[in-house]
Structures are given as structure tokens and as C-alpha cells.
């Protein structure tokens, strides 16, 4: 798990590293620029490219000046360096690197006002105007310059963060560099992981600049980033004498007459993720389809609900395609009144909770709510921004003692301990109907198999995204049914490697 930091915490990590490694701040800047250059050389090896580098007079600008020097030394001789000379203030390392650059045969231009900058043709534009030091909205010449650069045609690469984009928190204005590629130091900024950054970041990459990881681990932050290696630590191989009776029985409560498909998707996903037994509590008219699609699954008739033995099940998944009818509402009431183990609550089950907040009290501890943005807002009220949603989710997951899986490009998992894990896997090719139903089946299955709920959720969310990502290499769009077929293979791959 990587701990994610705010801009202030990153500065503290810089300072700590400088004092304790120890390393001169100018050397750290050199190391950062070198890490940037390594990615750059890989991506843009053509030395004939025309490059513009825009630098501020702080440390982000300092990075830009080092990058300019390093590019020159690497044989890029069509580089023009521009300095935004809008204030007297300048950092020591900026000044030092300006002197170093002046000793090379590199052209340096000063921009005193944005209007002086004519349109220039170039292949690449490096944005090193402002970085994590941003402390207010861009105004005046800064705003004009950024807007002008955005109109330039070259491929834009931002150093550390696009100029004008705050590392975390709400946007301050729309004067922000629209970068094609952002190369960030040590950690992705929190805002990279939220849709608000999407007009400004097409792609991002993180490079390690050797900040003190022990210091970072000791920093207090609720935000973490998890990836393949974290999942691989706890995914369990099947044991020699294990049988279906030991691998959990999951009950899927889903579907309505018009939306049987959702019930089939979550039931099949649950089965293919490895639950020992899966039973579908679905409308009778779906029985044939269930038998055809998932013959391994069992069926329980809603007409016999009074005879159900709730204790038979390790976990219940409820909601996909359930509808919000009177009958669905009764089903949810029954489940909440009788089942005391974790419940995975999705889609219409969330919508029903939103209609009847009294039911929230009945949700067993360590249950899992899996809303997308709209369901989240229906349940917890309208939010004007993702940061507001994050604040609510951090609070509600602690208050209700549940996990909240807020689905997105980088799905967030909020825990009863007040932690927010960002999932690293996934692909926009997954943005099509039914994908969330599959996730519900997967989470339910992992809980059935005995993973602690937190691990079950992480494992399901990661492997769901990972399967989508792998298929997206071959498919324009990943239909939910195709993803389901992939689950056992993906889990095996994660287990072995
Ligand atoms: N030693 C270090 O601390 C390292 C810093 N690094 C680089 O340094 C950057 C941070 O540098 P700085 O803290 O100097 O800050 P920046 O270079 O981001 O900004 C410079 C200064 O601009 C001013 N400013 C902020 N918002 C403004 C606005 N809206 N309009 C006009 N002026 C504004 C502030 O006074 C700020 O200190 C990082 O993003 C990274 O690129 C890297 O070189 C790694 C090491
Ligand atoms: N752009 C995207 N990038 C990564 N994952 C995505 C993207 N769009 C959707 N997904 C994933 O697909 C799933 C969609 O869930 P949901 O909106 O509930 O779909 P449905 O209701 O159709 O089943 C979520 O797990 C989400 O993370
Ligand atoms: K920048």
C-alpha cells in the first residue's frame, strides 16, 4: 500500500529527506529532473524534436531549468527555455540552475507579460511554471500565459503537476495547463485520482525521486493507493482437502421481471469468483434463464421466504436489478431483519435505503455498500464535488461501521476505521451496463470464501478492474459477460505471480 500525501506533507517529506539522507536540495532537484528525463528519453527519443520549456522562478521552475540542461547534454539542440518573469521572488535552487544553464549554449527568454509571447510551433512543450507550491488561483499574467500555452499545438508534458492544478482539494479556477502527460514525483497527487482533473490530465506517471519512505509511512494520512502486489500478498491458493462446504455459501438477492439480467450477472460472477455454493433468490420467471446461464447456481423461490434458513449463508449480496417495488422493499426488510452477517448492498437496495433511512440502523457491521456516484448522492444527499463526497464517505463509513465502495475510474474503498483506499486497476473500456453487478457478485463471493471483509473488498475491486484492464488490450469495450468469463483466470494469475 502506498500512502498518499498532500502538497504540504510532500514538502515535509522533501525537507526530511534533505536533512536526514542527507542531500543538498539542489541535488534532490537534480535527482528529480533525472527521473523525469529517464521517462522523457524513453517516450521521445528523437533528438530533432522542437521543444519549449516554460519555467517559473520557484522550485518547479528550477526542475525545468535542470531538465533543459539535461536535454541539451543528451543531444536535444532545438530547445527554447522561457522564464515567466512576473515577480521578483525566486528560489535559491532556481537561481543556481539558471546560472548553470547559462553556461550552456541554450537560448533563454524572459516573458514579462503574456502578450509578448507569440505563437510558436513546437513538437513538445514542457510545463515547469508552477508545481506543488500553488497557493491561490492563477490570475493576471499567470492566467493569460497558461491560457495562451493551452492554445499552443505541441504535446504538453507537465513537471510534477499541471500548472494551476491544486494537488488536492477543489479547483481554484479553470486556468490550468491541459497536459497530455504529467510526470509526478514520488506519488500521484490526490486530485489525479478524481474526475475533476480529467480535463487537465490525459495520462500520468509517477517517478521515484528517493524521498524517505519511512518518513512517508509515519506521516498521518487517510489515503492509500493499492495495486497488484498488495493483493498478491493475501490471495489464497485452494488447499488439498478443501471442498465446496468449506468455501462459503453466498445468497444473491437480485432481479425483477424486467431486470433478470442483472441477477444473472451477479450470480455468475459470484460463482466464477470461487464461492463454494451460490444460491439465487430471484423472481420465478428467471429460473429457466438461471439454469441455462449458470447451471451451477441453486435457486430459492421468493414464495418460500418464510422457510428460508438464513444461517446457511455466510453472506448476502442484494440489489442488482432488484427494482424498488413494494415486493423488493419487503425483501430488503426481511434480509435486514434476519441476517446478522455482512451484507453487500448495491444498486436498488441502496435506492431503497435512500427512500427509507430508518433501515440504515439495521445494516450489520462490516457490511459493504457499493454505490456509484448517483446512488451515493441519493443515499447521503446531493454533493457539489468529489471532495465533499469523500468527506461524507469517510464520516459515514465510520459512523455506520461499514465499507463504502464508491465506484469510479479509481474506485475508493472507505473503511470503518476511516481509511480511504484508491484502487489502481481498471479501464474506461469497462464503462458499460452490468459492470457494477459483476463487482457485487465478486465481493460477495470473496466474503463467502472467508476473506476478512476489508481484504475481500480490495481483492474483488482490484481483480475486477484488472480483468477489465487486461481485456481492454484486446477489446474496444469490455462487456460485463466477457469480464465474468475472465475472473477465474485472473485470480489464478494473481495467485501465481
Ligand atoms: N527540494 C524540494 O522541495 C523539491 C521540489 N521539487 C519541485 O518543487 C516544486 C515545488 O516548488 P515550490 O515550493 O518552490 O513552488 P512552485 O515552484 O510550485 O511555485 C513557486 C512559487 O510561486 C508562488 N505561487 C503559488 N501560487 C501562485 C499563483 N497562483 N500565482 C502566482 N504565484 C504563485 C508561490 O509563492 C510559490 O512558492 C514541486 O512541484 C517540484 O516540481 C522537486 O525539485 C523535488 C525536490
Ligand atoms: N472509466 C472507468 N474506468 C475504470 N472503471 C470504470 C470506468 N467506468 C466504470 N468503471 C467500473 O465499472 C463499474 C460500473 O459500475 P456501475 O456504475 O454500478 O454499473 P452498472 O450499474 O451498470 O452495473 C464500477 O466498478 C466502475 O469502477
Ligand atoms: K508544472
TrEMBL record:
<feature type="binding site">
    <location>
        <position position="437"/>
    </location>
    <ligand>
        <name>(6S)-NADPHX</name>
    </ligand>
</feature>
<feature type="domain" description="YjeF N-terminal">
    <location>
        <begin position="10"/>
        <end position="217"/>
    </location>
</feature>
<dbReference type="Pfam" id="PF01256">
    <property type="entry name" value="Carb_kinase"/>
</dbReference>
<comment type="similarity">
    <text>Belongs to the NnrE/AIBP family.</text>
</comment>
<comment type="subunit">
    <text>Homotetramer.</text>
</comment>
<feature type="binding site">
    <location>
        <begin position="59"/>
        <end position="63"/>
    </location>
    <ligand>
        <name>(6S)-NADPHX</name>
    </ligand>
</feature>
<keyword id="KW-0547">Nucleotide-binding</keyword>
<feature type="binding site">
    <location>
        <position position="372"/>
    </location>
    <ligand>
        <name>(6S)-NADPHX</name>
    </ligand>
</feature>
<keyword id="KW-0067">ATP-binding</keyword>
<feature type="domain" description="YjeF C-terminal">
    <location>
        <begin position="227"/>
        <end position="494"/>
    </location>
</feature>
<dbReference type="InterPro" id="IPR030677">
    <property type="entry name" value="Nnr"/>
</dbReference>
<feature type="binding site">
    <location>
        <position position="262"/>
    </location>
    <ligand>
        <name>(6S)-NADPHX</name>
    </ligand>
</feature>
<protein>
    <recommendedName>
        <fullName>Bifunctional NAD(P)H-hydrate repair enzyme</fullName>
        <ecNumber>4.2.1.136</ecNumber>
        <ecNumber>5.1.99.6</ecNumber>
    </recommendedName>
</protein>
<keyword id="KW-0413">Isomerase</keyword>
<feature type="binding site">
    <location>
        <position position="160"/>
    </location>
    <ligand>
        <name>(6S)-NADPHX</name>
    </ligand>
</feature>
<feature type="binding site">
    <location>
        <position position="127"/>
    </location>
    <ligand>
        <name>K(+)</name>
    </ligand>
</feature>
<dbReference type="InterPro" id="IPR036652">
    <property type="entry name" value="YjeF_N_dom_sf"/>
</dbReference>
<keyword id="KW-0521">NADP</keyword>
<feature type="binding site">
    <location>
        <begin position="407"/>
        <end position="411"/>
    </location>
    <ligand>
        <name>AMP</name>
    </ligand>
</feature>
<feature type="binding site">
    <location>
        <position position="60"/>
    </location>
    <ligand>
        <name>K(+)</name>
    </ligand>
</feature>
<dbReference type="InterPro" id="IPR004443">
    <property type="entry name" value="YjeF_N_dom"/>
</dbReference>
<comment type="similarity">
    <text>Belongs to the NnrD/CARKD family.</text>
</comment>
<keyword id="KW-0511">Multifunctional enzyme</keyword>
<dbReference type="InterPro" id="IPR029056">
    <property type="entry name" value="Ribokinase-like"/>
</dbReference>
<keyword id="KW-0479">Metal-binding</keyword>
<dbReference type="InterPro" id="IPR000631">
    <property type="entry name" value="CARKD"/>
</dbReference>
<keyword id="KW-0520">NAD</keyword>
<keyword id="KW-0456">Lyase</keyword>
<comment type="function">
    <text>Catalyzes the epimerization of the S- and R-forms of NAD(P)HX, a damaged form of NAD(P)H that is a result of enzymatic or heat-dependent hydration. This is a prerequisite for the S-specific NAD(P)H-hydrate dehydratase to allow the repair of both epimers of NAD(P)HX.</text>
</comment>
<dbReference type="InterPro" id="IPR017953">
    <property type="entry name" value="Carbohydrate_kinase_pred_CS"/>
</dbReference>
<feature type="binding site">
    <location>
        <begin position="131"/>
        <end position="137"/>
    </location>
    <ligand>
        <name>(6S)-NADPHX</name>
    </ligand>
</feature>
<dbReference type="Pfam" id="PF03853">
    <property type="entry name" value="YjeF_N"/>
</dbReference>
<feature type="binding site">
    <location>
        <position position="436"/>
    </location>
    <ligand>
        <name>AMP</name>
    </ligand>
</feature>
<feature type="binding site">
    <location>
        <position position="163"/>
    </location>
    <ligand>
        <name>K(+)</name>
    </ligand>
</feature>
<comment type="function">
    <text>Catalyzes the dehydration of the S-form of NAD(P)HX at the expense of ADP, which is converted to AMP. Together with NAD(P)HX epimerase, which catalyzes the epimerization of the S- and R-forms, the enzyme allows the repair of both epimers of NAD(P)HX, a damaged form of NAD(P)H that is a result of enzymatic or heat-dependent hydration.</text>
</comment>
<feature type="binding site">
    <location>
        <position position="321"/>
    </location>
    <ligand>
        <name>(6S)-NADPHX</name>
    </ligand>
</feature>
<keyword id="KW-0630">Potassium</keyword>
Amino acid at each position: 500500500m502506498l500512502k498518499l500525501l498532500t502538497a504540504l506533507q510532500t514538502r515535509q517529506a522533501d525537507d526530511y529527506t534533505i536533512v536526514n539522507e542527507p542531500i543538498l536540495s539542489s541535488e534532490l532537484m537534480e535527482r528529480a529532473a533525472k527521473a523525469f528525463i529517464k521517462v522523457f528519453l524513453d517516450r521521445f527519443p528523437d533528438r530533432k524534436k522542437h521543444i519549449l520549456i516554460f519555467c517559473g522562478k520557484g522550485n518547479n521552475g528550477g526542475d525545468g531549468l535542470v531538465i533543459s540542461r539535461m536535454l541539451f547534454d543528451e543531444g536535444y539542440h532545438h530547445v527554447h527555455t522561457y522564464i515567466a518573469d512576473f515577480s521578483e521572488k525566486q528560489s535559491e535552487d532556481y537561481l543556481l540552475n539558471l546560472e548553470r544553464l547559462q553556461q550552456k549554449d541554450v537560448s533563454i527568454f524572459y516573458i514579462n507579460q503574456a502578450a509578448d509571447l507569440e505563437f510558436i510551433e513546437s513538437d513538445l512543450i514542457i510545463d515547469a511554471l508552477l508545481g506543488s507550491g500553488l497557493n491561490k488561483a492563477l490570475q493576471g499574467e499567470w492566467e493569460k500565459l497558461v491560457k495562451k500555452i493551452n492554445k499552443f499545438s505541441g504535446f504538453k508534458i507537465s513537471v510534477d503537476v499541471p500548472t494551476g492544478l491544486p494537488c488536492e482539494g477543489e479547483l481554484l479556477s479553470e486556468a490550468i495547463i491541459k497536459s497530455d502527460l504529467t510526470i509526478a514525483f514520488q506519488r500521484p497527487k490526490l486530485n489525479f485520482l478524481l474526475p475533476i482533473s480529467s480535463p487537465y490530465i490525459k495520462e500520468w506517471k509517477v517517478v521515484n525521486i528517493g524521498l524517505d519512505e519511512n518518513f512517508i509511512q509515519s506521516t498521518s494520512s487517510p489515503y492509500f493507493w493499492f495495486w497488484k502486489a498488495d493483493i498478491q500478498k493475501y490471495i489464497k491458493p485452494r488447499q488439498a482437502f478443501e471442498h465446496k462446504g468449506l468455501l462459503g455459501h453466498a445468497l444473491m438477492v437480485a432481479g425483477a421481471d424486467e431486470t433478470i439480467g442483472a441477477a444473472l450477472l451477479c450470480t455468475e460472477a459470484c460463482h466464477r469468483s470461487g464461492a463454494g455454493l451460490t444460491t439465487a433468490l430471484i423472481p420465478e420467471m428467471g429460473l429457466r434463464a438461471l439454469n441455462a446461464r449458470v447451471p451451477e447456481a441453486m435457486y430459492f423461490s421468493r414464495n418460500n421466504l418464510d422457510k428460508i434458513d438464513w444461517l446457511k449463508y455466510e453472506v448476502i449480496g442484494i440489489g442488482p436489478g432488484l427494482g424498488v417495488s413494494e415486493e423488493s422493499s419487503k425483501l430488503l426488510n426481511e434480509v435486514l431483519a434476519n441476517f446478522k452477517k455482512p451484507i453487500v448492498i448495491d444498486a436498488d437496495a441502496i435506492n431503497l435505503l435512500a427512500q427509507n433511512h430508518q433501515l440504515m440502523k439495521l445494516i450489520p457491521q462490516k457490511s459493504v455498500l457499493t454505490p456509484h456516484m448517483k446512488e451515493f448522492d441519493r443515499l447521503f444527499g446531493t454533493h457539489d464535488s468529489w471532495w465533499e463526497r469523500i468527506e461524507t464517505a469517510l464520516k459515514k463509513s465510520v459512523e455506520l461501521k461499514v465499507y463504502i465502495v464508491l465506484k469510479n475510474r479509481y474506485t475508493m474503498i472507505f473503511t470503518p476505521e476511516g481509511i480511504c483506499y484508491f484502487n489502481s486497476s481498471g479501464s474506461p473500456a469497462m464503462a458499460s451496463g452490468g459492470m457494477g453487478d459483476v463487482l457485487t457478485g465478486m465481493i460477495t463471493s470473496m466474503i463467502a470464501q472467508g476473506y476478512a471483509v476489508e481484504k475481500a473488498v480490495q481483492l474483488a475491486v482490484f481483480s475486477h478492474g484488472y480483468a477489465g484492464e487486461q481485456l481492454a488490450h484486446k477489446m474496444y469495450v469490455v462487456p460485463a459477460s466477457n469480464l465474468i468469463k475472465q475472473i477465474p483466470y485472473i485470480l489464478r494469475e494473481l495467485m501465481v505471480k
